[in-house]
Amino acid sequence: MRALLRVVTVWVAGAGSLLAQGGDAAKIHEYLKSLPNPAPPAYGEVQRLALAANPLGCEDHPHAVGIIRPGYLWQRDGKPQILEDYDKHRAFYGCFDWHSAVNSTWMMISLIKADPTIAVAPAIRTELASHFQKQNIDGELDFFTKLRGVGADFEKPYGYAWLLKLYGEMKTWNDPDGQRAATILEPLAKWMSEQYVLYLHSLNYPVRVGLHPNTALDMGFVLDYTTQTGDKTLETAVHETAMRLYGNDRHCRTASDQVFGDFASPCLAEAALMGRVMTPENYAKWLDDYLPPVYSDDFQLYAKEIDAVRGNNRDTTGTDEEGLPNAHLIGLNFQRAADFLTIAQSLPKGDPRVAVFERLATISGKQGYDKIGAAGYLGTHWLATYALLYENLAQAPANKTQAALTKH
Question: How would residue 17 be classed by pLDDT, with cut points 50, 70 and 90?
Fold first, then answer.
């Protein structure tokens, strides 16, 4: 009898969660019918090659001179001087900045893993052979471990998160070139994993901006790494930090999302992360209190097209890109799309919001592709990476967002 009562209690708890979501099911279904229903963006060999052209075109193009960095590539002795033999002692010196070089490398690995016969596979392998020699990564590790003071925060946390995600992608690539590169990269990944744990433990408050240091965005990338490599120490730190910083959050201020220059949605990035560290039932309850109903006025910001083209939304960096569409706002389409899919895959299967989030992912992804070529080099050095983040979820929707660790 006690066993039966336990079963009934568990069922009622789960049903209660679904009823909480399903109470507005009719409104949600009506709202879904009001949304555009575009076909998913085409994604085949032609599109993969077009995306691959972006990292291949920038990996060997040195970082911009004008961006201040603590001596990584450019030395300041009177006028800027590039580091002697930088291509022998640095691995991530291309694609405008360090983290973009890292995520561009991740993109190439992800593409060749999914399609080993892609036409640019030889070019990707050549890049790996060039950038991933032991002396390159030794130089990276020597540089990072010697940073002190404010300079010690160089590329922390966003760049660290991407480096770990890259290592996880390499580590799980069943290919001699991938395994060789992963072995060479391992010391730097191990050090950054240890540093990331310390970083998470030091956080009293989350960073909620729609840019690189967003805590939830970066922890999501780190979870990709821990899932692939089984790094339980870091995985535990991410889970505990997520619950500590976000577990009691309520009523995200959606009206403050989409600020000029953002490439991530603070509200959606947090929602996506929490879906990966909570059980579907607990997550559904948390999401009830965190995001407004999808049919409400407060949610409609996410259903509207992001204006990256007109007026003040154009680029204002003072570079040759001045006046072009804003690259970050274009990228926000892809980040939103990936977040929508992660949220959908994390909810209980019977939750009526799943179909809405999936529809919004398709809409956002299409809008990103419509503008992806409009932003010049400020876009091409990274936008394709975020398109692939979306595509990897869209093409493999079998709930890959679920983390390996027991959820809360």
Answer: very low
**Residue 373 tokens, joined:** 């070529």
Buried b (16+ CB within 10 A) or exposed e, 200-228: beeeeebbbebebebbbbbbbbbbbbbbb
CA–CA separation, 339 and 164 (whole Å): 20
Strand, coil or helix: what is 75? strand
Characterize 367-381 residue by residue with b for buried, 16 or more Cβ atoms within 10 angstroms of its Cβ, and e for exposed.
Answer: bbbebbeebbbbbbb
pLDDT tens across 139-180, in order?
A: 999 999 999 998 999 999 999 999 999 999 999 999 999 999
- Angle (CA) 252-227-333 rounded to 5° is 40
Contact between 72 and 91 under an 8 Å Cβ cutoff? The reply is no
Asked whether the predicted pLDDT for residue 399 surpasses 60, the reply is: no
Domain range annotation of the chain: 45-187, 203-408
Strands (E), 36-172: 74-77, 79-82
CA atoms of 313 and 151, how far apart (whole Å)? 32
> At 293, which amino acid appears?
P
**What global pTM score does this model have?**
0.91
What letters, b where the CB count within 10 A reaches 16 and e where it falls short, cover 249-268? beebebeebbeebbbbbbbb
The span from the CA of 19 to the CA of 21, in Å, is: 5
Contact 222, 166 (CB under 8 A): no
How many helices (H) and strands (E) in the chain? 17, 2
Would you give the end-to-end CA distance of the chain in angstroms? 28
Round to whole Å and give the CA distance between 178 and 159. 21
**314 strand-pairing partners:** 325
Residue 371: CA atoms inside 13 Å, Cβ hemisphere, count? 25
Reduced to 3 states (helix: H, G, I; strand: E, B; else coil), residue 80 is strand
Which is nearest to 215 in space by CA: 161, 256, 173?
A: 161
Cα–Cα distance measured from residue 135 to residue 88, given in angstroms and rounded to the nearest whole number: 6
Q: What is the DSSP track for 334-371?
A: HHHHHHHHHHHHHS-TT-THHHHHHHHHHHHHHHHHHH
Q: What is the largest distance, in Å, between two alpha-carbon atoms of the chain?
A: 83
The single residue listed with the structure tokens 């995520």 is 103
| Parallel/antiparallel/unpaired status of strands 74-77 and 79-82 | antiparallel
Residue 349 DSSP one-character state:
T
Q: Is 370 helix (H, G, I), strand (E, B) or coil?
A: helix
